[in-house]
């Protein structure tokens, strides 16, 4: 019977349409250097070589374990820590400060700073849980065109409430 062929053809057409439809964007904030989603850091991790001139090393140890030894003498390195939460202990904060004092740089990107780091740097972060999108801009004249950058999902919604101007520079 002909209707079986029509039903089979419709099922095949429907299956092809499902297979070819665009996948939904995954807005999960993993911040993992292997994730190519909007809140993954794959592109950043793989572009660091062209930015700094040397390939990044992915570490899974605390700042104290990496640079806590007082004999650490390397200068000009960049220690990047990108995570949703930074539960640094007091010895980690002291190790990062010594590391920076020796001519190195420390870059931290986080929604929530631990109490030790917040107190030491004089930074207070807040979160706006009512946001459904985020818009940001660079206000520092060095970077500045004043252009606003928007993201359709407010998954990462922390902002700096207060900071010590002697220890921080607004981008």
User: Structural class per helix/strand content?
Assistant: alpha/beta
Mean pLDDT across all amino acids: 84
> Whole-number radius of gyration?
23 Å
Widest sheet: strand order? 1-3
- The fraction of residues in strands falls at 15-25%
**Which residue ranges are poorly predicted, with pLDDT under 50 across at least 5 consecutive positions?**
none
Characterise this structure.
This protein has 5 helices and 8 strands, in the order αααββαββαββββ. The chain has 171 residues and is an alpha/beta fold. A two-stranded parallel ribbon has the order 1-3. Strands 2-4 form a two-stranded parallel sheet. The chain is elongated, with a radius of gyration of 23 Å.
Descriptors:
8 strands, two-stranded parallel ribbon, 5 helices, 171 residues, elongated
Concise summary:
The protein has helices spanning 2-20, 42-52, 63-67, 90-101, 115-121; strands at 78-82, 85-86, 105-109, 112-113, 124-127, 134-137, 148-151, 158-162.
Which helices and strands, and how do they pair?
Layout: H1 2-20, H2 42-52, H3 63-67, E1 78-82, E2 85-86, H4 90-101, E3 105-109, E4 112-113, H5 115-121, E5 124-127, E6 134-137, E7 148-151, E8 158-162
Parallel strand pairs: 1-3, 2-4
Antiparallel strand pairs: 5-8, 6-7
């Amino acid at each position: 019977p002909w209707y079986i062929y029509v039903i089979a053809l419709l099922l095949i057409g429907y299956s092809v349409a499902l297979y070819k439809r665009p996948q939904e964007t995954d807005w999960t904030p993993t911040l993992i250097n292997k994730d190519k989603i909007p809140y993954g850091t794959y592109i950043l991790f793989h572009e660091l070589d062209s930015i700094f001139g040397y390939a990044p090393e992915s570490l899974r140890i605390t700042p104290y374990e990496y640079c806590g030894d007082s004999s650490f003498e390397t200068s000009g390195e960049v220690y990047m820590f990108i995570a949703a939460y930074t539960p640094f202990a007091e010895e980690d904060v002291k190790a990062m400060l010594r590391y920076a004092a020796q001519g190195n740089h420390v870059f931290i990107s986080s929604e929530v700073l631990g109490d030790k780091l917040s107190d030491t740097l004089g930074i207070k972060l807040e979160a706006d849980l009512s946001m459904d999108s985020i818009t940001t801009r660079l206000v520092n004249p060095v970077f500045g065109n004043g252009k606003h950058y928007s993201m359709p999902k407010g998954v990462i919604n922390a902002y700096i409430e207060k900071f010590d101007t002697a220890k921080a520079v607004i981008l």
